[in-house]
Write a structure and sequence with these properties.
CATH class of the domain at 20-83: Mainly Beta
Radius of gyration: 17 Å
CATH architecture of the domain at 20-83: Sandwich
Number of strands: 7
Distance between the termini: 68 Å
Shape: globular
Number of helices: 1
Structural class: alpha+beta
Length: 97
């Protein structure tokens, strides 16, 4: 019984770890370039217009992501970032037209 329980628990933990990933949805009409930073490792990736990419290895424990949104985003495993290529963190100006 304990052996079966231990094997089941190990399988659940392994599948939960394997499923951890960051997804970036590019809703813009242009290819975007993002940087993914995990500790001292950096990866630069291009995401085609209108497509999404999932990053399993680059962000399975959390990472920082920089991109066309003019800021670095602290991402957690299983986060999804959706962008239209514009700033995600900017406050709209009252004078914007």
């Amino acid at each position: 019984m304990l052996k079966t329980l231990g094997c089941g628990l190990a399988l659940v933990l392994a599948s939960a770890t394997a499923a951890s990933a960051l997804t970036v949805n590019n809703k813009s009409k242009h290819e975007i370039t993002i940087g993914i930073f995990q500790g001292s490792k950096e990866a630069v990736r291009k995401i085609p217009a209108g497509q999404a990419m999932t990053f399993k290895d680059e962000c399975k424990y959390g990472c920082a992501v920089s991109g066309p949104w003019s800021f670095s985003w602290s991402a957690k495993p299983n986060d999804t970032i959706t962008t239209d290529g514009t700033c995600l963190t900017c406050v709209p100006s009252k004078h914007a037209m």
